[in-house]
Amino acid sequence: MSLSRSPSIRLSLRARLAAGAAACAGALLVASVATAAPGDAPGDPSASAPKDGEASNADGTVNVLVLRVGGTGSASSAQTYIDALMAVTARVNGWAAAHGKYFTSPRLARTWVTDAKPEYGILSLQAYLALRESLGLSLLGTVDAVAAGGQQYFLISVNQHDLAGCKGKTLATHLGKDTKFVDNVVAGEAFSLADFEVVDTRRPVKTLKTLLRGEAECAFVDDAQMTALSKLEGADTAQTVWFSATFPSLIVAKFARTADADAKTFAGNLDKVCEGDGAKACGGAGIEKLAETPAEALDKLTAKYDG
């Protein structure tokens, strides 16, 4: 695989070096990236916003939504690592307990939000931008993750040597359901999905295999898929023809029902979660650190998404 056309490809190389524990363990940020089912595109207007002031669990448990749409890996053991991470988070914040529930489907996540009334959420950037209004989300922080995907996006090809060569041809991807995110946020003015004949592969690795088998001229992938590509036969025939800016992998947010004072305390404690004995839980979940982020940090991306 040619790296000369993408200096920022180093993200995928960095992820490759650190991905062993996360990928093998089925950790949160690698395991929580199965493709959403049909009809689960983020931003479904049928979702109802939560109401302010709704009560937390009577036993003091704080509920946390974990929603990651699009990526590589198996979700089978994700909940185990989420549980460990939530135990540390509860201790750091002085909560009786914390329960994190993992989803890859925005539709199922919305149903759980209605029933469980979570206080906080950890979401992929795409999901946050699409669902922030319907779920009443406000930015608190970001997550620096290993092999999580969503940090950077690439157009790759076996036969084509530049972006212009890919336009008008088949483009394999499982990331094309939210065209607003791809066109407005990721691609900017470089291209839109309408410039290609999109082949919806529905699965991350299938995208790569579709390209390598010659069933598509180009592929639109993220950094986690670039790491996965390096392990496939024929990977050295693929080259990067375009790459995006970098983005935060995951967003930490509060729901509207959560008191501002409580959210401020929680945000201020984010950087403590991976310290001390929390390092093991974070490592198992593929997390390097969590950090508080100013409320306006995503304003430019939000404006781009809204078009």
Secondary-structure map:
Elements (H helix, E strand, L loop, with lengths): L9 H16 L2 H4 L29 E7 L10 H16 L3 E7 L2 H11 L3 E5 H7 L5 E9 L7 E5 L5 H4 L3 E4 L5 H8 L10 E4 L3 H9 L5 E5 H7 L9 E5 L6 E6 L4 H9 L9 H7 L2 E6 L6 H8 L1
Parallel strand pairs: 1-2, 1-3, 6-7, 6-8
Antiparallel strand pairs: 3-10, 4-10, 4-11, 5-8, 5-9
Helix pairs in contact: 1-9, 3-11, 7-12
Keywords summarizing the entry:
307 residues, 2 domains, D-Maltodextrin-Binding Protein, domain 2, disordered N terminus, 12 helices, single chain, five-stranded mixed sheet, six-stranded mixed sheet, elongated, alpha/beta, 11 strands
Integer tally of domains: 2
CATH homologous superfamily descriptor of the largest domain: Cypl, domain I
Kindly report how far apart the N and C termini lie.
35 Å
**Low-confidence segments, ≥5 residues, pLDDT <50?**
1-40, 42-55
Element-level helix/strand string: HHEHEHEHEEHEHEHEHEEHHEH
Kindly report the CATH topology of the largest domain: D-Maltodextrin-Binding Protein, domain 2
DSSP summary, beta strand count: 11
Report the CATH architecture of the largest domain.
3-Layer(aba) Sandwich
Order of neighbouring strands in the sheet with most strands: 2-1-3-10-4-11
Q: Mean pLDDT, as a whole number?
A: 83
Query: How many distinct helices?
Result: 12
How many strands, which pairing sense, and closed or not: the largest β-sheet? 6 strands, mixed
Strand content: 15-25%
The shape, in one word, is: elongated
Helix content: 25-40%
Rg, rounded, reads 19 Å
